[in-house]
Amino acid sequence: MATAHQPPSTAPHHPAAGAADTAAPALESAFDAAVAADERIEPRDWMPDAYRATLVRQIAQHAHSEIIGMQPEANWITRAPSLRRKAILMAKVQDEAGHGLYLYSAAETLGASRDDLLDKLHSGRQKYSSIFNYPTLTWADVGAIGWLVDGAAITNQVPLCRCSYGPYARAMVRVCKEESFHQRQGYELLLALSRGTPAQHAMAQDAVDRWWWPSLMMFGPPDAESSHSEQSMIWKIKRHSNDELRQRFVDICVPQAESLGLTLPDPDLKWNEERGQHDFGAIDWSEFWSVLKGNGPCNEQRITQRRRAHEEGAWVREAAAAHAVKHSERKEATA
Ligand code: BYC
Predict the structure, then answer these.
(1) Residue whose CA is closest, atom 8 of ligand 1?
(2) pLDDT in tens, 105-126
(3) Residue pLDDT, tens place only, 253-277
(4) 220 CA distance to ligand 1 centroid (A)?
(5) What's the half-sphere exposure (Cβ side, CA atoms, 13 Å) at 223?
(6) Which domain of life is it from (predicted)?
């Protein structure tokens, strides 16, 4: 909610980096108090430069993940095994585009420019989620992505509905509702395969074997190596640490895998009575960091395809801009 921590009317509403930290300590105290009281920070409120920069970084990465994440699944739209499956998959992929749009809009409320963010994605200066650098080799991968990748996304994003920054938190409410439909469609798809022919069952198991570990990596590095978590939790951008959410996800998935009749590819996975949680095996963090450096199986393909889509969409952006000019001229003429 916009309250006492709003800037005086002479202050810039979207101060460029560097401008805001000269603000009087009173503004900083009002910001800290608002965060402590679980109030929402809104676009026109004063906020520290570093808070703004952290949000732009995270929201931009999130937006980029949504639009890059369309690629692995779109790969199967033309080969979906039935009209029903095709319609579901098309709806899901379109939802991801919508999520990208909400998130780019949320980043714009912080003063970021969409063109600049896309430029940073295309030139490798901003990241997208590691998970989308893995290939979708079979139809069962569509199910594994829905169950595991969207499942991990919900686990991570439900707490973001309580993020201290209003526009991001509100965008997450709708995103989470849609992600939960995505997760259910993946689960239902895998269940059908698991209960199908031996070949279909084997295809489902193979997909889960390949997507399990990369899904655990989605939550980010272990807490001890997470450079942003501590400050983001103080600011209530993040509400839980990477390891906490990863553990929550593992505990949710184990009974679901049993119901699916599929196994999770981790011999060390077992219930720990004392902790009331599952123990699980060591994650290969060297793979995670290597994917982040651009060496995953599909990094190059994903970014090449994204750049091409952007170039091919230039005429649409030009047409939309020309239409907007025409529209505003007409409005002025009739005013
Ligand atoms: N992949 O300090 P840390 C979806 C980076 S889309 C790549 O813990 P933070 C879907 C991190 O950026 C799901 N990079 O960072 C779409 C940082 O590097 P920089 C996307 C990662 O931000 C289509 C460094 O590692 N979800 O669900 O505190 C179809 C240190 O990490 C990753 C979101 O974006 C990663 N997995 O915490 C289907 C959720 N993890 O920036 C599904 C919003 C870490 O210093 N984001 N890094 O160069 C978040 O919640 C947080 O940003 C993270 C990381 C938990 C991901």
Answers:
(1) 226
(2) 999 999 999 999 999 999 999 9
(3) 999 999 999 999 999 999 999 999 9
(4) 6
(5) 13
(6) Bacteria
SS (H, E, C) the chain: CCCCCCCCCCCCCCCCCCCHHHCCHHHHHHHHHHHHCCCCECCCCCCCHHHHHHHHHHHHHHHHHHHHCHHHHHCCHHHCCCHHHHHHHHHHHHHHHHHHHHHHHHHHCCCCCHHHHHHHHHCCCCCCCHHHHCCCCCCHHHHHHHHHHHHHHHHHHCHHHHCCEHHHHHHHHHHHHHHHHHHHHHHHHHHHHHCCCHHHHHHHHHHHHHHHHHHHHCCCCCHHHCCCHHHHHHCCCCCCCHHHHHHHHHHHHHHHHHHHCCCCCCCCCEEECCCCEEECCCCCHHHHHHHHHHHCCCHHHHHHHHHHHHHHCHHHHHHHHHHHHHHHHHHHHHC
> Nearest residue CA, atom 5 of ligand 1?
220
Residue 129's nearest CA partner among 239, 40, 211 is 211
37 C-alpha to center of ligand 1: Å? 26
Token pair for 222: 């272990």
- Tell me how far the alpha carbon of residue 121 lies from the centroid of ligand 1, in angstroms: 14
CB-based burial of residue 275 (10 Å sphere; 0-12 exposed, 13-18 middle, 19+ buried)? Answer: exposed
